[in-house]
Amino acid sequence: MVRLTVLGSCGAWPSGGRACSGYVLESSGMNLVLDLGFGTLPRLLSRLRAEEVGAVFVTHSHVDHCVDLFGLLRARALPKPPLAPVPVYSLSDLLDRLAGLAGPDGARTLRSGMEFHPLAPDSEVAVGPYRIRSFALPHFVPNLGFRVEVEGRVIAYTGDTGPNSRVVDLARDADLFLCEAMLQGTSTSEPEPMLLAAAEAGRYAREAHARRLMLTHFWPYDDRSVSLREASREFSREIVLAEEGLEVSVP
Q1: How far apart are CA 31 and CA 189, in angstroms?
Q2: Dmax over Cα atoms in the chain, in whole Å?
Q3: Spatial CA neighbour of 144 closest among 173, 115, 124
Q4: pLDDT tens digit string along 106-119?
Q5: Who is most buried in 19, 104, 126, 204, counting CB within 10 A?
Q6: Cβ burial, residue 16 (10 Å; 0-12/13-18/19+)
Q7: φ and ψ of 218, to 5 deg
Q8: CA distances (Å), 19 to each of 68, 75, 146, 192, in order?
Q9: Mind listing the pLDDT tens digit for each residue in 162-209?
Q10: CA-CA distance, 62 to 97, in Å (whole number)?
């Protein structure tokens, strides 16, 4: 069985009782983490011991997607004896973000807490039972969407992205399409939008023939039912709103 658990569903910052972007995939005895934004680590460690995290994939270096990774590295590096370093896969600029969080006295934690694997855009890696293909997608900083294949299932995750036809390629025939839907309505003042609207998420899901859509990465103050209605006008299959603690199987 393949299972996805939502650790956090907010963008930018978490509202009370919530967290920012973070998800766990469980399959064939291996736990794969996708992003660890504000407030996700306590939720992760309420489910798993630090040593049970098999690998972490980070879409991009914005803190609402990666800041709690440093806490996980401390949980691996500082016990006596220390735990094995956790494999971390991301674009190389994540190291600069983590170094800024660590400060001069935290260099040992970075070195011993993780085994860093820089990802090139549009690359493919195998980690345990998972095969992960990365897609370069437009955002304010370099961002990778991840297409994860495991046990014959496909889980696609956008990270943060603006409108782009490659989102359809990322989500093609996905069993679960985990898609940013931060904006509502259709108007934007940005000449080159770097975030998706819920209706766009629904349209991409329809064009990709995804089997199920999960909307996520909401503004903390927005009414999420609006996003659901807007996406439903474009996508007639099942739509799920990401919620902290939500577990979904991927049959």
Answers
A1: 40
A2: 54
A3: 124
A4: 888 888 999 999 99
A5: 204
A6: exposed
A7: -90, 150
A8: 10, 19, 21, 28
A9: 999 999 999 999 999 999 999 999 756 666 789 999 999 999 999 999
A10: 8
Residue closest to 11 by CA, chosen among 178, 183, 128: 183
What's at 36, amino acid-wise?
L
d(CA 90, CA 155): 18
Inform me whether the pLDDT recorded for 231 exceeds 90.
yes
DSSP code for 52: G
Domains in the chain, ordered, with CATH?
A: 3-249 (3.60.15.10)
Copy the structure tokens of residue 128. Answer: 């345990």
Alpha-carbon torsion (10, 202, 58, 191), positive or negative? negative
**What's the DSSP call for residue 162?**
-
Alpha helix ranges (H) inside the chain? 40-45, 63-66, 69-77, 93-102, 107-113, 166-171, 198-208, 224-232
**Cα–Cα dist 194/70, whole Å:** 26
- Give me 100's structure tokens: 């800024």
Separation of CA 151 from chain center? 20
| Joined tokens for residue 6 | 């939502």
Single-letter residue type at 2: V
Across 4-21, average pLDDT: 98
Q: The whole model's pTM is what?
A: 0.97
What contacts 250, CB < 8 A, 6 or more positions away? 2, 3, 4, 153, 155, 175, 176
Cβ-contact 4, 34 below 8 angstroms: no
The 3-state secondary structure of 180-203 reads ECCECCCCCCCCCCCCCEHHHHHH
- Rounded CA-CA distance 31/153 in Å is 16
